[in-house]
Amino acid sequence: xxxxxxxxxxxxxxxxxxxxxxxxxxxxxxxxxxxxxxxxxxxxxxxxxxxxxxxxxxxxxxxxxxxxxxxxxxxxxxxxxxxxxxxxxxxxxxxxxxxxxxxxxxxxxxxxxxxxxxxxxxxxxxxxxxxxxxxxxxxxxxxxxxxxxxxxxxxxxxxxxxxxxxxxxxxxxxxxxxxxxxxxxxxxxxxxxxx
Length: 195
Description:
- By secondary structure, this protein is α/β, with parallel strands linked by helices.
- Helix content is 42%, strand content 20%.
- It has helices at 6-30, 65-68, 87-98, 103-108, 120-128, 140-150, 180-193; strands at residues 44-51, 56-58, 61-62, 72-77, 109-114, 133-136, 161-164, 169-174.
- Strand 7 and strand 8 form a beta hairpin.
- Helix 3 packs across helix 7.
- The N and C termini lie far apart (68 Å).
C-alpha cells in the first residue's frame, strides 16, 4: 500500500478544516445568545437604543435627563396642538387608557406630550387626566427643531409614539398604523425584558 502524497494530505486537512468550520458556524448560529438580538415587536425596535435629544419642559426650561431616568416614558410629539381633539393627543390618551387594564405596566410608564405653545390651562387640563401624564411645551423654534430631529412633519396627521427607556435612550417607535392593542403588547414585551 502506498503512502498518500503531500498534496493528498493537504487536501484531506483542508477538507476537515472546511467541515469543522461549517459545523462550528451552524452550531453558533443555532445557539447564539438571544439577549444580543433586538426584541421582536410590531413597532420599530431601535437597537442599540439611541440617546434622547434634550426636550423643553417650558418655554424657558429644558427637561433635565434625571427627570426621565429610572422609569419608562412614552413621548408624543404633536404638531397640531391647540386644535380640538388633536389626533396625537387622542392617540396618546387611547394608549394611556388601554394600559389602565395593566396596572403594573401603567405604574412603570410616564406619558409625555410635547406641543408648541401650549396654553397654561391646556397644559394643566392634560396633567389633570392622570398623575403620570405630563404636558411639555417650548417656544416655536425650539419645538420645531425637536420635531425636525425626530422627523415629524408639521403637516402630519398623526405622529409616532416614542418609547424612552430608564437610561434616557430611545428604544422603539410606534407608527400611526399600529393600533393601541398592538402597542400595548409591544410595550409589555419591551418593558418586561428589563428590570
